[in-house]
Fold this sequence. Notes:
Elements: H1 3-9, H2 20-27, H3 31-39, H4 46-59, H5 65-71, E1 77-82, H6 90-105, E2 109-114, E3 128-131, H7 138-144, E4 150-153, E5 164-167, H8 170-183, E6 189-194, H9 199-215, E7 221-224, H10 230-245, H11 260-266, E8 272-275, H12 280-291, E9 296-299, H13 304-308, E10 314-317, H14 320-336, E11 343-346, E12 350-352
Parallel strand pairs: 1-2, 1-3, 3-4, 4-5, 5-11, 6-7, 6-8, 8-9, 9-10
Antiparallel strand pairs: 10-12
Helix pairs in contact: 2-3, 2-4, 3-4, 6-14, 8-9, 10-12
Amino acid sequence: MRADEGRERAGVRTEEPVTILTVAREAGVSKTTASDALRGSGRVSERTREAVAQVAERLGYVPNGSARHLRKASTGTIGLHVPEVLTRSSYYMSFVFGVVEQAARHDYDVTLITSGQRRSRPPRVDGLVLGDPLGGDPVVESLMATGLPTVSCERFPGPRQADGVVWSEHASMLGRLLDHLRESGASRPALIVAGDESDWAASVHRGYLEWCATHGVVPLVRRVSFDASGDEVRAAARALLDAGGSHRGAEYGDDRATDRAAQHRNSGPLDALVCAPAGAATEVAPLLREAGVNVLLASCVDSAATRQSDPPITAIDLRPKEAGASCAELLFELLSGAAPVGTERVHPIELSIRASTRPRP
Length: 361
C-alpha cells in the first residue's frame, strides 16, 4: 500500500504534510510520546513504541531530520574510526554495519575515519565511536583530544580513556576455549597473537598466560602484527610447530626452574593451536594438513570462513554487529545525558565449538 493510500484511509488529506502531530493524533498519544517512541528514547512502553511506529509507517511519516538537528545545534552525524584492516576484515565490516544501523535509528549519518586520514581540524561530528583503538595511533590520540564525546570498543591502551567503553571478557573466554581443548585431549596449546597495542589482543595474551600458569603448561607463543598477512601468520605457525616439536618454547619456556616430570608432561609437542588475529586460523588450516600433524585448531574471531572451513573451525563469536550497535547506542546516551561519562558496558561473546577441535580418541 502506498503512503498516500494509507493517509487517505486514515482520514488525512493527501495534500497535507504528515507531521509528528499527525502521527501523535492518529496514535492517540502526545507529541512528546510519539517523538520519543520513534526516536527510541524516553520512558515509552514497547507496546506504545510499536503502535506509534505502525501509525508512522502507515501514514508515510518521514522525520524532518535537518530541522531537528538544527534545533539541537548538532551536525546530525557521528564519526566512526576503525583500523585500516577494514577492507579485508569481515569483523570490522560487521562492526561498521552495526554502528550505521543504530545511527539510522536515531536519524544520524556516519562519517568513516581511518588512521590514514591526517586532519588539520576536528571532524564535523557530534561524537565519535572508536573501533578497537590501537595504542600509539596518532589519529586516535588526536580524535580523543578534540573533546568530542567518545565511545570505544575495548579500552584504549593509552593515557587517555574514552567517555564510554563497551568491552568483552576476552581473557576469561579464552580460558574457556583452552579448557575445551584440554578436555579434547590437548595438553600443550600454542598461541598466535597480535601485539599488545590492542586491548583485545593484550587481553587474549593475558588470558593464555594465566591459563598456562594455572595448569603448569609452558607457554608457546608467537606474536604477529595487528594486520598480519597470510605469509606472516603461516611463518608464525611453522615456527611454533618447529619449536613445539623440539620441546622448546617459541618465545617463552625456560624450563630450568620447573620440575622435570612436569616439564616432560607439559612441555611436549604442540597439539593445539589458537589463532587470535582475524582470518589467521583459515590461513593456518591448509598448512597443518600439509604437515600431516594432529593439531587441534581454534580461532579467537569467528567468521563465515571459519564456519565454512573443512573441517569447520572452533571459534569465539565476538558478535561484531551487536558490538557496533552497542557502542553507537552508548554514544547517543552520552549525547542526550542519559548515560554519565565513564560508563562501561560488557558486551557478551560466545564460544562456538566445531569439528576442528573434536575430542581425540
